[in-house]
Write a structure and sequence with these properties.
Protein name: Mannosyltransferase
Keywords: Endoplasmic reticulum, Glycosyltransferase, Membrane, Transferase, Transmembrane, Transmembrane helix
Structural class: mainly alpha
Strand order of the largest sheet: 2-1-3-5-4
Distance between the termini: 60 Å
Number of domains: 2
Transmembrane segments: 12-30, 91-109, 121-139, 168-195, 207-229, 257-284, 291-307, 313-333, 345-366
Subcellular location: Endomembrane system; Endoplasmic reticulum membrane
Membrane topology: Multi-pass membrane protein
Strand content: 5-15%
Number of helices: 23
Length: 490
């Protein structure tokens, strides 16, 4: 008997492929915290970093240690199998995250299936895995992604039909870990707590069990952090004190309350951003007693009240978007007269958005992070096969703030940075057999005579670039030439 695959099985198989490829190509980090607050912190445990190497957050003891310790454990296992290359190690971190994401999303979608019409189930499944920015976010080994995934799992368990004390103990434990990965999820947890009391009217004994589970993990986090920082410390309080009471976060920029609306429109690409914002509004209005409403609304409102805003702060609730979109269309838009009268036009719009989603998915998933700079750094790493490494840099290059090479984890120990702006070529001797010479230049600088001389004299060839050549003219037009780079090597 031949086994017939169901539709969802094809989706799961495709998700494994897409998420694997995204984990493979998505070299680098979306935000510096993804690297410096996790991997560099983990370096304290294996001796690759010292406290003086770390950013100010270490001294103030505001970062939870659970993720750096998890990173250290994973790296030790990899070292046991002689996998020590930094790019392989970070790929494994992303790959683990991708697998965890797929498993949790499968569980969440199955838990939500009963709330949707069967005819909309396939659309929900497709969006849950392949809405263009989700694979990119769901493979990140960041606090935002891991906290969000664990929170998504806790919501899925609550929505599950089982309703015993063991279930609520498990929920408390999982939400506790979600909180340890990122403290700001507390705003959504508070919403769940209120929903259980006032909407679900759950038994007090189950809420107590839920709370005990959460507090146990909170206490575990206190012990882990105290061990990591070598003194008794409560990083949750430290974080609140530094970023809220002292308002340290505002030093990194402030913006008005409505800025998250603009960020959603910009970062999700405007057509998708409009749909997301519109469907969230419709969903909340129509489903004001929904658990998801009670989770995301406090989270969004309180984040909007905090002065410092970044799009990544919304990542912990991003995986609810597919359900919200489909549910809002099902409950509201599909029932509107203008929709019924213009089905053919709207169908064509859906096809257009589907095509755009594929292009955006490819752009976000199958290239290095951070304008492609991480890809250049990886290329340098694998070109570094000689005793000495000369890295020629131009005026648009800033190794301390723009490049992974400055971190202990990615650092090329034999690297010598040579600033072309102050370079006299006649004073430099190049030992071809002993030295690998590479040049990093922006498209602003590539036309300068001195750079052309270096490329010609050293017989350098182009190795890679942060964006395709056909887009260079566009980047110059919009004044982004100092942010688009090329790598040459002899």
């Amino acid at each position: 008997m031949i086994y017939k695959f169901k539709f969802e099985n094809y989706i799961y198989f495709l998700a494994i492929i897409i998420y694997f490829l995204t984990a493979f190509f998505s070299i680098g980090y979306f935000n510096a915290d993804e690297h410096y607050q996790i991997i560099e912190f983990a370096g304290l445990l294996d001796g690759t970093t010292t406290p003086t190497d770390l950013p100010w957050e270490y001294e103030r003891k505001i970062r939870p240690a659970i993720q750096p310790i998890l990173t250290y454990i994973i790296f030790e296992v990899l070292s046991f199998f002689s996998l020590t290359d930094p790019y392989i190690k970070t790929f494994i971190l992303r790959l683990i995250t991708a697998l965890v994401s797929i498993i949790i999303i499968i569980f969440f979608t199955k838990s939500c299936q009963k709330f949707l019409s069967p005819k909309n189930w396939k659309l929900f499944l497709l969006l849950s895995f392949f809405l263009w920015f989700l694979p990119f976010i769901n493979i990140r080994f960041s606090s935002e992604t891991w906290s969000g995934l664990l929170f998504l799992l806790s919501i899925a368990i609550i929505l599950n039909d089982k309703n015993n004390h063991y279930k609520f103990a498990l929920i408390g434990l999982i939400i506790g870990f979600s909180f340890l990965f990122r403290y700001q999820i507390a705003f959504a947890v508070f919403g769940i707590f209120l929903w259980l009391i006032f909407i679900k009217r759950e038994q007090i004994s189950k809420i107590v069990v839920f709370s005990i589970g959460f507090l146990c993990i909170l206490f575990l986090g206190f012990l882990i952090d105290s061990w990591f920082y070598n003194e008794w410390t409560f990083t949750t309080y430290n974080y609140f004190n530094v970023n809220i009471i002292e308002d340290k976060a505002s030093e990194f920029g402030v913006s008005p309350w409505y800025n998250y609306i603009l960020l959603v429109l910009i970062f999700s690409f405007a057509p998708f951003g409009i749909i997301i914002l519109a469907t969230i509004t419709l969903f909340v209005n129509k489903n004001h007693k929904s658990l998801i409403t009670w989770a995301i609304v406090p989270f969004f409102i309180i984040h909007s009240m905090v002065a410092h805003k970044e799009i990544r702060f919304l990542f912990p609730i991003i995986n609810f978007v597919p359900f919200i979109i489909v549910k809002a269309f099902e409950d509201s838009i599909f029932k509107m007269n203008w929709y019924k009268k213009n089905k053919k036009i709207i169908y064509k719009i859906f096809i257009f958005l589907f095509v755009i989603n594929i292009f955006c998915l490819g752009f976000a998933s199958f290239r290095p992070v951070g304008k492609g700079r991480a890809g250049i750094v990886e290329k340098i790493h694998y070109l570094n096969n000689k005793p000495n490494l000369n890295i020629f840099i131009t005026k648009d290059y800033n190794p301390k703030y723009r490049w992974l090479l400055n971190s202990n984890f990615y650092k090329e120990e034999n690297a010598n940075f040579i600033n072309i702006d102050t370079l006299s070529l006649s004073k430099i001797s190049f030992e071809k057999n002993e030295t690998r010479n590479v040049l990093i230049t922006s498209i602003n600088d590539i036309e300068e005579d001195q750079i052309k001389k270096i490329i010609k004299q050293m017989k350098m060839k182009e190795i890679t670039k942060t964006f395709p050549s056909f887009s260079f003219h566009l980047f110059k037009k919009i004044n982004m030439g100092d942010k688009v780079f090329l790598l040459y090597s002899d």
